[in-house]
């Protein structure tokens, strides 16, 4: 009985226990069924999340254009290759959708991607071993061109797929790089493990206008199966992306290209430490061209020597270009008599102030007029005007009226203002001839607009308008903005005559800046460079250790263009002046730009210069078109015989006489490219889709493909380039070019 009672008791306990568990589980199931939640997590939402795929729809970044609508920066389509290695992805599929044969796949991909086959095999096999769904191939598998993508797709390799990506592309390479800047791709890993990629502006306009250029990304979501395939009823939801707005600059591509090529030529010949140049319209404040050296190619911003836009970010002691503001202040104040004589050479206001000396070691030119003092760029004349005529406190007011103590407000990032040193009597004097106090080139250009524009000072700007990239609607458009009037119209006219005398007067320091068809006025500058070595002289010594500069405008009676150029520490020949590289840049850019803009010459026959517009080229007979263009004085190169199939110039484009027009026919033959610039060679290679090997910098002195040789896509073009006036004497370069010739011969042989 006892045993029976115990058994029943234990059985009862077990029954109660199991009944309790049953009730708890049943209650739990009933609760889950009623509420649809577990631990405050909605099962319906969880299931929805698990079977729903969501992807970002990338917006297209806005483009950057020049003032004529030529694209300077845009998104270019590339492809990222990846391999699906999960065998289960091919389930229920007639054809395999995963990599079946890693070794064969690697052997076929390796020559196209230009990597070792073993690297590809290792990546695929590691993915299979780690049970990954797919693998990627690093930088070698990214930024593939359409041609490379198509070449791989034709192999029909199972498991090899592509995803379209955009990269930021700058079609002109090293062109207005410090203005446009560059944007690069950034990657960010999300909570779900996916990686989002965005293009973000880093410098220049790309950075300044990043919010407008970026646009807004969209999204697409749909329900899927475990193989990521859409269900029959996927409940697809799409939020369309909004593309970024387009930015149109005041930069003119033709003038900017002319400036870039001229600076590159001077860079090769004189190897200066720094160069800056800017071209402006003094009537509007629009920046038409701006460049610095060193510069960089925004398509590959590696090993950049100089990130700073020196035109706006690097103040320095400008030297004698500042004298134009000193003379203008004296004229405006009513204390200037240009015919009044003064003793040149040296000047010491009192015993406590160090003597001021003229640039010819203080010898001077005897007693001369103040007009001649400006023509000769006399430091003594500037000092006497500031100290005796205007008065230093009143002179400071004029410096501030010209805004030489503050940033210009140009619409570019990173602007830095110079500093007016005005604490001691000597500083107040030296400021009058550009020593001690510092300014930037853009500050000087802004101040000079008052002289060129009847006393009205204009704010410089580079953004012309912002447009909706889809509708073409103008969102914002800039117009000339007068920010002050430091001098009167009469003073500006008198100052212009003084500037004209510097270039055209008998005693002028700027005779090298004369151009054939237009009267130029301007002011030269030879700025000393502070010596950073302790215990040494305050400024560097030696005839090359200066910043040589010129600020000029033309036609001088009513300036249409204004230009500033500075060259720091050029390597000069024994009998060469520091103004040689500066004047070479100024003359080339200024005269060609004035003609290109159809500005009437004020010298010679005074005939209007008509712009040359490119007619229809594609499909026309090359010989006939060449003759017609040559008769117009244009520089034409025909590549082959027959009908024209492509050109580096578009129909309707306006060209300069210095532009090279390349006409490619349906039967291309290699032209003689001796003397061509690197830019021209790259344009030719792009049109013919040639691989290029460039040796050196400057202008072509040797090519590996002989003139008249038939050329085809993917041929190798090797050229050697040298700076002007250098001879070809490199045996090593000859060997490289010979190797390229042998490669071409091998490729022409039948298999």
TrEMBL record:
InterPro entries linked to this entry: Beta-lactam/transpept, Beta-lactam/transpept-like, PASTA_dom, PBP_dimer, PBP_dimer_sf, PCN-bd_Tpept
Subcellular location: Membrane
All copies of domain PASTA, residue ranges: 608-665, 666-723
Pfam families assigned to the protein according to its UniProt record, in alphabetical order: PASTA (PF03793), PBP_dimer (PF03717), Transpeptidase (PF00905)
The EC number(s) this enzyme carries: 3.4.16.4
Segments passing through the bilayer: 12-31
Segments of this protein annotated with the region Disordered: 709-751
EC category name: hydrolase
Pathway as given in its UniProt record: Cell wall biogenesis; peptidoglycan biosynthesis
Compositional bias of kind Acidic residues: 728-751
Top-rank lineage group of the source organism: Bacteria
Catalytic activity annotation: Preferential cleavage: (Ac)2-L-Lys-D-Ala-|-D-Ala. Also transpeptidation of peptidyl-alanyl moieties that are N-acyl substituents of D-alanine
Keywords: Membrane, Transmembrane, Transmembrane helix
Family recorded in the similarity comment: Belongs to the transpeptidase family.
Protein's UniProt name: serine-type D-Ala-D-Ala carboxypeptidase
Species name: Virgibacillus tibetensis
The organism's taxonomic lineage, starting at the top: Bacteria, Bacillati, Bacillota, Bacilli, Bacillales
């Amino acid at each position: 009985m006892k045993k029976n009672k115990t058994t029943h008791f234990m059985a009862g306990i077990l029954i109660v226990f199991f009944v309790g568990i049953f009730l708890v589980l049943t209650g739990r199931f009933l609760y889950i069924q009623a509420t649809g939640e577990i631990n405050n997590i909605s099962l319906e939402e969880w299931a929805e999340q698990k079977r729903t795929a969501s992807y970002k729809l990338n917006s297209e970044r806005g483009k950057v254009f020049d003032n004529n609508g030529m694209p300077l920066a845009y998104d270019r389509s590339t492809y990222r290759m990846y391999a699906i290695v999960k065998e289960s992805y091919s389930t229920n599929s007639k054809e395999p959708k995963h990599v079946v044969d890693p070794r064969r796949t690697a052997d076929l991909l390796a020559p196209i991607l230009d990597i070792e086959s073993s690297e590809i095999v290792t990546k695929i096999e590691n993915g299979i071993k780690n049970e990954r769904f797919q693998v990627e191939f690093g930088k070698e598998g990214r930024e593939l061109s359409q041609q490379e993508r198509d070449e791989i797709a034709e192999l029909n390799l199972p498991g090899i797929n592509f995803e379209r990506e955009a990269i930021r592309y700058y079609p002109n390479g090293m062109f207005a790089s410090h203005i446009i800047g560059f944007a690069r791709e950034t990657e960010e890993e999300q909570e779900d493990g996916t990686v989002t990629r965005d293009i973000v502006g880093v410098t220049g306009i790309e950075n300044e206008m990043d919010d407008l250029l970026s646009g807004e990304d969209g999204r697409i979501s749909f329900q899927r199966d475990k193989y990521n395939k859409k269900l029959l009823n996927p409940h697809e939801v799409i939020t369309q992306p909004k593309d970024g707005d387009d930015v149109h600059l005041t930069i003119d591509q033709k003038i900017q290209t002319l400036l870039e090529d001229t600076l590159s030529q001077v860079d090769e010949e004189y190897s200066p430490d720094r160069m800056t140049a800017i071209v402006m319209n003094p009537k509007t404040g629009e920046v038409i061209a701006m460049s610095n050296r060193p510069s960089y190619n925004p398509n590959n911003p590696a090993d950049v020597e100089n990130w700073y836009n020196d035109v706006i970010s690097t103040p320095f002691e400008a030297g004698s270009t500042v004298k134009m503001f000193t003379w203008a202040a004296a004229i405006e104040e009513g204390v200037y008599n240009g015919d009044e004589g003064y003793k040149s050479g040296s000047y010491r206001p009192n015993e406590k102030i160090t003597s001021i000396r003229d640039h010819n070691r203080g010898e001077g030119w005897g007693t001369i007029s103040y007009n001649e003092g400006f023509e000769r760029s006399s430091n003594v004349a500037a000092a006497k005007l500031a100290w005796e005529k205007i008065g230093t406190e009143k002179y400071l007011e004029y410096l501030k009226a010209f805004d030489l103590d503050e940033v210009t407000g140009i619409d570019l990032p990173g602007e830095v203002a110079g500093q007016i040193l005005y604490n001691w009597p000597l500083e107040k004097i030296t400021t009058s001839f550009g020593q001690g106090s510092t300014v930037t080139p853009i500050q000087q250009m802004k101040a000079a607009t008052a002289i060129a524009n009847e006393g009205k000072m204009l704010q410089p700007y580079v953004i012309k308008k912002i447009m909706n990239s889809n509708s073409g609607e103008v969102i914002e458009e800039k117009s000339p903005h007068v920010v002050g009037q430091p001098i009167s119209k009469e003073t500006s006219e008198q100052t212009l005559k003084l500037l004209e005398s510097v270039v055209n007067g008998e005693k002028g320091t700027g005779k090298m800046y004369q151009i054939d068809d237009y009267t130029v006025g301007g002011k030269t500058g030879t700025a000393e460079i502070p010596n950073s070595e302790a215990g040494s002289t305050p400024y560097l010594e030696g005839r090359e250790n200066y910043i040589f500069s010129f600020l000029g405008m033309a036609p001088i009676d009513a300036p249409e263009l204004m230009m500033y150029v500075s060259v720091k520490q050029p390597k000069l020949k024994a009998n060469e002046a520091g103004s040689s590289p500066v004047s070479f840049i100024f003359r080339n850019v200024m005269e060609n730009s004035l003609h290109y803009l159809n500005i009437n010459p004020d010298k010679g026959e005074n005939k209007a210069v008509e712009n040359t517009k490119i007619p229809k080229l594609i499909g026309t007979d090359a010989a006939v078109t060449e003759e017609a263009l040559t008769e117009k004085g244009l520089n034409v190169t025909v590549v082959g015989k027959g009908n024209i199939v492509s050109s580096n110039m578009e129909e309707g484009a306006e060209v300069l006489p210095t532009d090279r027009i390349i006409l490619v026919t349906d039967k291309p033959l290699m032209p003689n490219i001796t003397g061509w610039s690197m830019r021209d060679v790259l344009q030719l290679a792009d049109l013919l889709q040639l691989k290029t090997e460039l040796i050196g910098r400057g202008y072509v002195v040797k090519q590996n493909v002989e003139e008249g040789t038939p050329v085809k896509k993917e041929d190798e073009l090797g050229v050697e380039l040298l700076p002007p006036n250098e001879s070809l004497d490199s045996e090593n370069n000859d060997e490289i070019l010979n190797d390229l010739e042998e490669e071409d011969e091998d490729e022409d042989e039948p298999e």
